[in-house]
Predict the 3D structure of the following.
Amino acid sequence: MRRLPPLTAIEAFVAVARLGSVKLAAQELALSAPALSRRVQTLERFLGRPLFDRRHQAMVPNGDGERLLAQIAPVLDQLSDAVELMTSAVEVVRLRLGVLPLFASQRLFPRLAELRQRHPELHLDIDTAGHGVARLGEGLDAVIALARDIDPALYARRLDRNMVYVIGSRSLIERPDPVVRPQQLAALTALVHRDMTDTFVAWRTAAGLDDIEPMAVDHFDSGALMLEAAAQGLGVAFMHESHFADAADPRLVRLFDIEVVSPYSYWFVCRPRALQLKQVRIFRDWLIETLGSEAG
């Protein structure tokens, strides 16, 4: 057999060539940037020639790099596919899913018994650590993300369209001076999720109330805690209609009868090649079928 370079060096080269960045390729392969650079250099030393034009914060394949990528990338993909087919052919298949805790508790877990009944071979490893899209390929097969839009290089399906609701404690409308006018927000704290930072501004602009400023804006990374804070009277939460409806919390009310379309949606996201995995396809098809009526 002819001598070949290390497979890890080839994998590193293909990742950098496709992504144009050592940092992004290192994230995808779960390596440090220096370790990935060393693998690329190993391949270049093996071939006796450079494969990239190194620019500021970018790695662009040169002529030799482009020719090599065109020849070996399809072969590497076929090798990866063969391994995935072997591992997905076992009785149990496992999906590593990133999902926000509120979506998981309100909309995913109440339906998982149906998924298990239909596909008993599918098991989920749930990750709620956040920043899931950035970790695709690095411990996650797929993500349910809350975002305005998704990088077109990724596969994405919108799961819903929503309205922005101003959600507050029932005590706000039962007190002697009930909160019934948007202008009263000046005396209240706005509660905003870090993954939905523009909800307040979007609501205010769409409602034609650009001059209104809340007393303060508090940021959360947990939708469940935002709803609890609103119920406790700590502020008013700018969240989705579905968050309010699914919470079904009698302590909470929707304030102001103003219809504002949210700039954010929930999305199913994965890398395009991940759709070749049985577990990703099963979960995607079930999720879209289950929540499809909510996409609008």
Notes: The chain has a mean pLDDT of 88. Residues 63-87 form the longest helix (25 residues). The longest strand covers residues 93-99.
